[in-house]
Amino acid sequence: MKLDNNMIEHRLKRAVEANTPNVLPDILQSIENIKGGTEMNMENNNQTRPIAFDNSRKERRTSSKWIKWAAGAAAAFVVAFTGFFASSQLTPQAIVGFDVNPSVELKVNRSEKILDVVPLNAEGEEIIGDMDLKRVDLDVGVNAIIGSMVKNGYISEAKNSILISVNSKNSEKGAQLQKHLTEEVNSLLNSYNLDGAILSQTLSDDDRIAELADKYDISLGKAALIDLIVNNNERYTHDDLAKLSINDIYLLLHSKQNKPENVDFSGEASSKEYIGAARAKEIAFEHAKVNEADVRNLEVEMDYDDGRMIYEVEFDAGNKEYEYDIDAVTGAIIEYDIDDDYDDDDDDNGGSNAGNNQKMLSREEAKNIAFRHAGVSAANVRDLDIELDDDDGRKIYEIDFEVGNKEYEFDIDAYTGKILKYETDDDDVSKRPSNNTSSKPASSSQSLIGAEKAKSIAFNHAGVSAANVRDLDVELDSDDGRRIYEVDFEVGSKDYEYDIDAYTGKIIKYEIDEDDDDDKRPSSGGSSQKEPTKPGNTQTVIGIEKAKSIAFNHAGVAAADVRDLDVELDEDDGRKIYEIDFEVGDREYEYDIDAYTGKILD
After folding, report:
1. What is the pTM of this model?
2. Do 327 and 417 touch, CB atoms closer than 8 A?
3. What own/partner pairs with CB < 8 Å and gap ≥ 24 does 430-435 have?
4. pLDDT tens sequence across 165-184
5. How many Cα neighbours within 13 Å face the side chain of 361?
């Protein structure tokens, strides 16, 4: 039953009356005693002092006024107390934040009832889903949120860290709530057979922290945490740490033994997503060709450098000092330095293993990197597919497989072993973004349209029926910081590809490829088209990616530095060409490239 304001006030009034002592009978009895005493005095004096009767009437009038005043005061007290009580129940007394990668804030009143739930990113919206947590006890709401994080895979054995932040109007109660929530969350994780790692802190209003949170699209709690770390360690920047998950931040703090004083730590963060310190030192020893027994002054620390988690391994052996930076995911040696104490001759590889002399990873090695990152066993994998491909001049392994009810897709650098992209897909086809992407919706109230809606938009635009569709694939991805659904399917002899804005449903780009002839329907979104085969010839077009790569290589530029890129498949004097325009720095580039041979025409 929903309560209106009158019913709420009525119940509050009853509650106040039940708890307010009824002193009126005592007051009336006192007045009767006074009255009786006066009349007795009159009788004893044989009515020789009539003035006493007049005083009695005056006293009765005074008492009557006093009673009216007391009743009015009591009524005023009830109204005031009722208003105060109601106001205190509807006013947020504390804001509690939970950060993993999903970020959620709860506004609670002095009775620890939830007044509002605010998801701060797309993952937070996924966690809350259709749960209505308003007006429920805080502990009940926390139980539901933690359970949803575990269910959706955001908290697991490989990622077991969570940040709890409490901003309370009462600092003492805020500290008590921080302690209580830490114990509550730890107990909940134990019930899921997970050993949690919990960072907790209390916050106060700070405009500078609020600006950091807005700048990096992160919560106030995470902004306050990374600000503390940056202030304690000049090596890190806000730009670096804002990209990291809470689990990675916990690992860095634990490894560096540089924990901020204002943050409480409970438990130990999992490093199961990474090769581990023991394996990192083995890789260094093998490369240096030294035995561990001969090593002294060994130090292994986890760090973050140039967009990746690494292990820094330093040790002495013989008369040499060794320093290694090893990729924490792939085990690839990123950089090493060997210093001979006697001749001061440095053997430095210049910081890169991506040179021409570097050996390409085997399919087996690439596969193991993907399995280790996904936290799965090879014995449980099915439908494994590994392809060596070329993406903008970069050799990559594309690895797809299934485990249980999930599908996994990885793009892995064929030389360094770096994971360039990964996705997991549940049964509902809607892709959950990897930890590498965290894109906040345009507004906190906006939510993803969902895979089903994206699919429907594509089918309606293509003018096809779902019953006729085959080989349907829907993926939630990130493109230039924009969340999109990639929808691919076939109907009849045609292939359809759509990029659809994940929040607005706008069709950004689409392609329709007719397999049987040369008829191509161009995309309303602009530049990307496919061409089947050259008439009268079995030769196929080189494709947009290859054409781009040819242009970038000729210009001597990196794809990451390119802006305002436009690629169109056109026809010039009966010849199919790719027209490619882009800018780098203060220069503009225009290329015409033969669509079949790759020859630069202009």
Report:
1. 0.47
2. yes
3. 430/474, 430/476, 431/474, 431/475, 431/476, 431/477, 432/126, 432/152, 432/153, 432/476, 433/122, 433/123, 433/476, 433/477, 433/478, 433/483, 435/101, 435/159, 435/245
4. 999 888 888 899 999 999 99
5. 29
